[in-house]
Amino acid sequence: MKRRSLLLAAGTAACARGAGLRAPAAPRAPAAATPLPPRSVVYGRRGMVAGAHPLAVGIGVDILRAGGSAVDAAIAVNAALGVMEPMMCGLGGDLFAQVWDPRAGALAGLNASGRAPRAAAIDRVRPDATGGIPLDGPASWTVPGTVDGWFALHQRFGRLPMKILLAPAIAAAREGVPVPRVIARDWRTSGHAGFARTFLPAPREGELFRNVDLSRSYQLIAEGGRDAFYRGSIAKTIVAFSRAHGGFFAPEDFASTRAEWVTPISTDYRGVTVWQLPPNGQGLAVLQMLNVLETFDLRGMGRESPDFWHTLVEAKKLVFEDRARHYAAPERMKVPIAALLSKEYARSRARLIDPAHAARRLAPGLDRSDTTYVATADADGMMVSLIQSNYLPCGSGWVPDRLGFCLQNRGAQFSLVPGSPNALAGGARPFHTIIPGFATRAGRPWLAFGVMGGDVQPQGQVQVLINLIDFQMSLQAAGDAPRFRHKGSTEPAGAMTPMSDGGLLALEPGISTVLRGELERRGHQLAQETFFGGYQAVARDADSGVLAGATESRKDGCALGW
């Protein structure tokens, strides 16, 4: 593959915002219909990639054209995004994925989230003012799982050599890439040791960003495999950096890192089976919310009804109560996942929703986190739902010496309360917000999708699914439709304890003033918010095999088919 094609393929008209994608004029619709979306659904026959940066998406399509699998494409796109969208993802973060394996006719789940250093302990951490682990301190560092995740995926499902998959990211980091609008807007402007050398001054829209240090790290991995990261010079550099700055990392923390293949969990919602990975992630919340909402006639209520929005928000509150009390790594959960997924339990919880009044008791949402999501599909029937994150923008903001990437701060999600399910312990995995979604119909693969953004993710995934299933929206319109976001109003970011102030409800433009007023009368406290997540999706028609792609109109990315 030529380097030029790898870096510029996504500049085609099919990937441009609106260029060649705007839907044709349609007959006048009734007043209640959803407005025509600003982008059309993208279609392809042999492959599809949806991601948060057009150049990265183009790289993924080039990998598919060169004979790579959907997993190969997802790895190449994720590596490129580590260069092009570095506040959202990178080598210092974690990864989760669901892969539809056409040979087995089943989903495979991968948990590539890192663990706390073995030396970490509650009594060794000085809490911040909220009583939690400081978000930007060395105690928030957990072992990065992304590279291990790439190689686990590649060993099982890859076709092309890893050197080929990483080559476009290496070239992009060395030569530079222009920064699009949303990424430039969200660029982190301060950090700790090593940050300024790598990421400052913050690039403006359209400026080139280069990261030569990162290109060298990628090159080491391409040549030396996963051991270059977990046993070689990269691990040694991170451990030395940790010791110099008060962290807990030791060589054995890296050498013992292994991604885990897990069995996805699911629920049926109006004839569609929705799949998530089991905790330590929060995908269980999506399934619980769907179980509660299935007991209501949402389509009959209609999206313009205050009953519809009120019911969705109240269901979220109920489920996030469970999330705060129970979610942790499976071996540390005190309530069985099966019990939380029970339809009978959902019906009992649904009966707690008062149609006239907003509940005051709920679990806190998390503050905004930064993540990237990639969906891919190939001609052989493989589909990939992959999500990868540093947690907060550029993670902890610490960049180990000349490695070109930040260390994640996912460890800040641990609790410092002894005995709690998510309490900090050496070698434990923390609660995780990033969740790759998947859905099947009649046992056949239908949808790989995700909605980025901390506590937004379960709320956003549920809203997208309701738009698709209850309201029969197109793949693109389902993501473009206005959303709500509900979050706690007083608890600190990362808090995982219940609270009782009712929280704050943000509604996107497009939700009417009349509807907002009715929700306020029911007791919802409305607030201003500008972040409602980032959606990407790829769908497969079971009969024709035609692939459809959609991407978040609130971000820079695109979908591109082949």
Question: What this model shows, in words?
Answer:
- The protein contains 19 helices and 18 strands.
- The longest helix is centred in the middle third of the chain and has 21 residues, at 306-326.
- The two termini are 16 Å apart.
- The chain has 562 residues and is α+β, with helices and mostly antiparallel strands.
- It is globular, with a radius of gyration of 22 Å.
- The chain has two domains: 3-15 and 38-47 and 54-257 and 392-408, no CATH class; 262-368 and 436-556, 4-Layer Sandwich (Glutamine Phosphoribosylpyrophosphate, subunit 1, domain 1), CATH 3.60.20.
- Residues 1-34, 363-368 and 491-495 have low confidence and may be disordered.
- A hairpin with a 6-residue loop joins strand 16 and strand 17.
